[in-house]
Amino acid sequence: MKSKTLNLTLALAALALTAWAVAAPEKTHLARSVSTRKMADSVHAVIAADQRVYAETSARLEGAPGHAELLRRAARSIQTHGAEFSYALRSLQPIATANGPQTEAEQTGLAFVAAHPGGNYYTEEELGGRSYFTAIYAERATAAACVDCHNANPRSPRRDLKLGDVLGGIVVRVPLEF
Ligand code: HEC
Asked: Is 59 in the pocket of ligand 1 (CB under 6 A)?
């Protein structure tokens, strides 16, 4: 008898917990958006570090793909392995026109990080019927190699870049389930 009562109590407690979880969508939403942002920040930290190291050394590697090409190839490869995020290198004044902003959020975010290099831009987008958390981070000229190579490129719309300037941004997208 005792154990039956205990079982019933446990079952009721489980039910109450479930009801609470269902009735607290704000909390669940809050928890999810914080972790989505943290995920985007972490993804960005890794890509940015790889880009920095590669961009600062690849100029010396004859025949190696450029840093932007490396990023594209890695981003494609990750997609084919089913990653739950995507990323791209963009700029409002790109060397390669394909690296220009592709969505309104990219346009706004790139303008924001160009004006506030220390701050990141976070928003949500609807693309192809799906919702995304979109984060945009400034890509700054952290080494002389960035400035020298960009200023010397015949396709570059800018010749006056200096160390520390914002050359564009990294866009990270995480799909949101609703
Ligand atoms: C050896 C030359 C070289 C170096 C060094 C270099 N870049 Fe680039 N970068 C390029 C070229 C070329 C492209 C465009 C080519 C492409 O998309 O395939 C590009 C593209 C970019 C883009 C995308 C927008 C655009 O202009 O097309 C950003 C942002 C960028 N680079 C930032 C940086 C930063 C920051 C550094 C230094 C940490 C750096 N680059 C170092 C050659 C270079």
From this structure: yes
